[in-house]
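FORM 12-B: Structure-to-Sequence Request
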């Protein structure tokens, strides 16, 4: 029986660098003008994922960007923040340009603690919006920092890597301000963000194997009531909704990007009752798994005149 997921997962060293990456940067950091990135990395024609963070700001052009099957418009001022594990695909006009930046978590954490990333509103949760539409003055601010990053990256002067991380943090601070203005961001304490991050990490690790919420509460050394309060305050969701959402996200990925049967996908997600999986999927998505697969056949198989690139 075939068991093929059709999307590759790339690391930074898979991408060509205009400045002959040295070893420490080769797998941890990358920045380029987007048009140059598109020109030299024209090797992807299907949806794909990364094991690093990607930040992209569009200054020119148009198109669409599919992130985990959700469609976003590509236009000047659009800024995308993609986390490790997300699946995406481009369809871009030939004149599309901007800046693209990759970094791994361990690269950033060389000078900052893990809470710095956890506290960023656009990286707080797998449910954060991956796209921000910036105003012209905001684009100018972000591009100014990107230019400084690129200058350090190409110049490689003394301690340039430390200065790049400072500039990267500056980008995060500015984005956090813009994001908070454009999205409803609740005031939460560091402890709550850390606990939410723990819960989501546990879900990512065990969602196929442990459905009872009591397992997650026990692993976090908190009560079910505390877990419910945490999810409600930070995300306005129930813990059960978060677990279901993660199961549905994985089901969507397998439905779209693999040739597995719906029954096999249900088994892969450890549902004992295939009909229950189908009912749950339809309740959340308003489509049966088969209908969902058919509706996204374009996303998987269509060849376009646009560019489908990293």
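FORM 12-B RESPONSE
SEQUENCE OUT:
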């Amino acid at each position: 029986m075939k068991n093929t997921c059709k999307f590759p997962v790339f690391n930074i060293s898979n991408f060509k660098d205009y400045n002959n990456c040295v070893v420490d940067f080769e797998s941890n950091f990358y920045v380029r003008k987007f048009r140059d990135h598109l020109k030299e990395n024209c090797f992807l024609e299907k949806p794909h994922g990364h094991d690093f963070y990607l930040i992209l700001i569009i200054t020119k052009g148009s198109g669409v960007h599919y992130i985990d099957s959700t469609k976003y418009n590509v236009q000047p001022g659009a800024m995308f923040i993609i986390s490790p594990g997300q699946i995406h695909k481009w369809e871009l006009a030939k004149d599309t340009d901007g800046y693209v930046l990759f970094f791994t978590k361990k690269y950033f954490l060389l000078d900052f603690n893990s809470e710095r990333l956890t506290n960023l509103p656009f990286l707080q949760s797998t449910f954060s919006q991956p796209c921000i539409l910036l105003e012209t003055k905001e684009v100018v601010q972000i591009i100014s920092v990107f230019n400084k990053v690129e200058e350090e990256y190409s110049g490689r002067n003394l301690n340039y890597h430390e200065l790049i991380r400072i500039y990267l943090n500056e980008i995060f601070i500015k984005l956090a301000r813009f994001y908070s203005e454009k999205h409803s961001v609740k005031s939460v304490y560091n402890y709550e963000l850390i606990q939410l991050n723990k819960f989501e990490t546990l879900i990512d690790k065990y969602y196929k194997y442990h459905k009872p919420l009591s397992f997650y509460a026990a692993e976090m050394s908190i009560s079910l009531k505390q877990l419910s309060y945490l999810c409600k305050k930070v995300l306005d969701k129930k813990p059960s909704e978060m677990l279901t959402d993660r199961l549905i996200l994985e089901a969507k990925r397998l439905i779209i990007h693999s040739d597995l049967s719906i029954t096999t996908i249900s088994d892969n997600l450890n549902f004992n009752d295939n009909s229950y999986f189908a009912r749950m999927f339809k309740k959340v998505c308003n489509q049966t798994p088969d209908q969902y697969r058919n509706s996204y056949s374009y996303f998987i198989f269509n060849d376009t005149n646009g560019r489908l690139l990293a």
